[in-house]
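can u do me a favor
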């Protein structure tokens, strides 16, 4: 297998990190059965995105303009 380069934006990195932690928690808790990895990984990404949107809707970043 050849080398693959991936460049992620900071927001993509944050979602990826959250998704990997969520996925790891599913694995450690024994919920991911053999052959089910793809589905659980997709679920983890969806949940990480959902969390990111909730944070964005709730928290105002330092550089956002206040109305």
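np, heres the sequence
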């Amino acid at each position: 297998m050849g080398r693959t380069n991936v460049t992620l934006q900071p927001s993509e990195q944050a979602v990826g990190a959250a998704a990997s932690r969520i996925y790891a928690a599913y694995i450690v808790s024994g919920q991911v059965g053999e052959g089910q990895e793809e589905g659980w990984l997709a679920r983890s990404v969806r949940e990480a995105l959902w969390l990111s949107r909730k944070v964005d809707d709730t928290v105002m970043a330092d550089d956002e303009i206040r109305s």
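The mean pLDDT is 93. hope that helps!!
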